[in-house]
Fold:
Amino acid sequence: MKALSQQRRHPLAAVALLLLGLLLTGGLYAAATSVNEAQASNVPDAYTASDVEEGERLFVANCATCHGINAVGSDAGPSLVGAGAAAVDFQVSTGRMPMQMSGPQAQQKPAQFNDEQTMQLSAYVASLGAGPAVPEDEYLDASEGDISRGGELFRINCAMCHNAAAAGGALTEGKFAPSLDGVESVHIYEAMVTGPQNMPEFNDSNIPPEDKRDIIAFLKNNESQGVPGGFALGSLGPVSEGLLIWTLGLVLLIGSMVWLTSRSS
Structure:
């Protein structure tokens, strides 16, 4: 112990302690730098680090109450880790998020964030984990799609909820499949890859990007046709049309009987 005490008072002891402190500081700095680089590597190529930082600020201020500070979810909202940029862009651009009130389904309303803020929120969520990205423009060009093929795919995969004329329909427990008339191409694509609300997800293994473009082409062509007959009648086909004809025929028949009876008297 006496020898150790003497070495502690050695003139070089202070230098040795200083060197040890520098080594520890340098090691901690290198570790922190490697962590930051690892986090930066999670930033998708479409976004910058500043986009992610600003998106995190917007998220904490507007979304963390329900989705948690680190977007890991809470009792009020699901985790967004791995949700991807497409999910954020769809929900925020259509005004479904932030939700105005609790209910069976998030309602579409005017967007609360501009395009830049929506992009920044998308960048932040995309940095948390791999998920569907915002689609490229080439898969949104309806003029390049096959309308006939798109109609076939739509009737097989979508018509049971959205109606064969894409007019929407009722689901269970107050939920519904919305009308697709006037919906932007990017939102149609994003809905397919993210599966919002009760909609199933159609990833590229189920419906490749080219087929998604065909579906968009069909919907846009259907939208451009308008209502040739003058009355949509809910776009329910022969059911609503037959009911209308039957009702009008019955009214005319009763009216004719009343008229004939009044003349004979």
Q: What stands out?
A: Confidence is low (pLDDT under 50) at residues 32-41.
